[in-house]
Amino acid sequence: MAITAEDVWLEKVIPIAEGFAVEEVIPDGDLHVIGSDVTVRIRSEGDGLTVQLPFGSHTRTFLQEVSKCSTEAVGSEGIKQNGKKLAASPGWSQDSTDRSAPRQSKLKPEVTTETVRSSSVMVSNMASILSEPKFGLRDTIVKSELVQREDSYTYIQNFRFFVGTYNVNGQSPRESLQPWLRCDSAPPDVYCVGFQELDLSKEAFFFNDTPKEEEWFKAVTDMWNRFPGCPLLLTRFWIHLLCTEKFLSAVFLFQGNKGGVAIRFKFHNTSVCVVNSHLAAHTEEYERRNQDFKDICSRMQFCQSDPNLPPLTISKHDVILWLGDLNYRLEELDVMKVKQLVDEKAFPELCQYDQLKRQMNAKAVFEGFTEGEISFQPTYKYDAGCDEWDTSEKCRVPAWCDRILWKGQNIAQLSYRSHMALKISDHKPVSSVFDIGVKVVNEELYRKVFEEIVRSLDKMENANIPSVTLSQREFHFEDVKYMQLQVEKFTICNGQVPCQFEFISKPDEVTYCKEWLIANPSKGFLLPGSEITIELELFVNKSTATRLNSGEEKLEDILVLHLDRGKDYFLSVTGNYLPSCFGSPIHTLCYMREPIQDMSTPLKLALNKKLASSLCSSLIFFLLTSLSQTLMPLEMSNNATQAEKPLEIPKELWMMVDHLYRNASQQEDLFQQPGLRSEFEQIRDCLDKGMHDTLFGSNHSVAEALLLFLESLPEPVICYKFYNSCLECANNYLLSSQIISNLPECHRNVFEYLMAFLRELLKNSGKNNLDVNILASIFGGLLLRPPPGHHVPDITEKRKAQQFIHQFLLRENNLS
User: Fold this and answer.
1) Are residues 194 and 224 in the same domain?
2) Are 211 and 218 in contact (CB under 8 A)?
3) Is the model's pLDDT at 604 over the cut of 90?
4) Contact in structure between 283 and 268 (CB atoms under 8 Å)
5) Is 728 inside a domain boundary?
6) What is its EC number (predicted)?
7) Lowest-pLDDT range, 270-274, 463-467, 612-616, 775-779?
């Protein structure tokens, strides 16, 4: 019923004068009723009035406007009433709008992405989703109940998605994209377009400096602008050669020109992740492609807006769309047979020889993903400018390299096709149109469900103390190795009271655990009777290995698991670390004639302390005029006097370089193609245990191990203190040589040894596809690194570092 004038009367008058203030009264305790009236106190000249205002946006706007008027009066003549100047309330400050915002987001039952979560979330996973510091325990319970009852206030609405992929082979957009992007009568609601091989130049490879990105972006957007309607969402993302633009949500790249980028977004109440990837080439490399896919899935992460929440992986989305040049080929058929089957349009028969189909059937890759029926001819490889198959000397077997797959519910593929009209590349673009069912919130039903949950929580008792049981409290990690993840799991079982838990830092410590350890999730919420599995992940990398190698730090830590309104639980974490040459200083390794894992910890610690004060004295120069002498094996003398002298270079470095010198001088794409993680682990064990006979694994794995070794050095080959000087004289070989001559002898020996090795590789550039710019860029960032605390190198600094190394690759230096 409407309020009339007869329903309102004057009861009390509060003068607006000096000291006037309007203050919101915040109730004590964590269990304030969400949606209840807002208590406001009005006071002026010793008089006051307390009123209840209805919960909602109108009250919030009123309080913010009063605060705004009060703060504007501060420092000015102010507003005068009855001859007195008004003063701002001491309870409101300049940031009053910000102060009120948290409570508004906390109490107002609005439909937001923070409050409404995906119904695909399991109760056991709520811990990693619902733990937000600005929400109290009661609010967290409301959120978890909303998650479980999501189906009661959401409905499925179909939206049309266009997904396209095109490997443009470094070409510029010289032809219209209309046959690809405007092949349907009506525009879709969402466009997702990905490109590969946008720019194949070396500048783009190393410095992310390419004008072609803007050319293609303009070509795509110009085509969209011609539609009579505007799409709801435009996602822009590209494959780059070794680097990506900053607008991407997450990035994972391999060495070389292969890798992947992804973008995620929330569409109504459905989370969507789109991945654009370019996997390893060549028919025989299908296992490498499988590994590329797994690496992207496991290592690509999206940081959430709340830094307290763990990053999201690709799999943590309702809808996943995967597109790109996946590079899977046709096998067991020669080129003529394939062309014959294509001419006969026998695509189902041809698909039986498709590597991707076979690998998916074997559950070796893209498990859980779906690909539509292929009814178009292979998209690779064509002669540029026409529709003729590859007529080059290699005469590639046609293959469906360019693919689109999806994963999720309520997805219907309407079309899957290639577009033969585009001819500038050796690939043909591919597109697919989907009807995707998106969860949309009915605000009226949502408010009804919200109010039902609040009413039910009003009846809950809040005096109970939460209690949990832990399946394990002591954890020991056995034989921890460098860059080899170990995981221990335990279960938190909750009692009969809702429980919010968190690992908290100990007194005088910033983080809850040591740098080499992480608990996943580190905080969360448990419903009564529920449980959650916590993973303790131990991983030693370049930032933590040095102190562990020297024995200055041990794998020991105590974790404190805190329950909100409950007690603390203490977890003991120990482990034994196997020392490694990775993460050890150059001068330390030069004094180690025996494998690092054979040395006792006190000896390593004493050696580090000794060398810290006196670096590598009286070394014998090992560089001779001929390359065969330069790369000669190390002499391991048994003489007692000789044993006290340091080695000229670390024996581990010699083992890797010697292996590459003897076996990989003509290896194609050396240092540009990644090795296998399993082979790296074998190589690391060989170096650390002193197995000198041979190094396991491919040449690419040994090359990657060498790069990781140089990257892990706590003090780079060119010492930190020379960093700025090297950049300043990057174009002056004489000054650069003088800097190298001032390095500690063990560092100088390593630098000259590596330069000699790289110059030898350049003599075989016709076979290994290396050139001086590639090697200078790769090793410039490893040998010449900015000191700790220095800003991240920009493009100018990277170019100077490259130029500095470039000088020594073009000429032999003799600094002795």
Assistant:
1) yes
2) no
3) no
4) no
5) yes
6) 3.1.3.36
7) 612-616
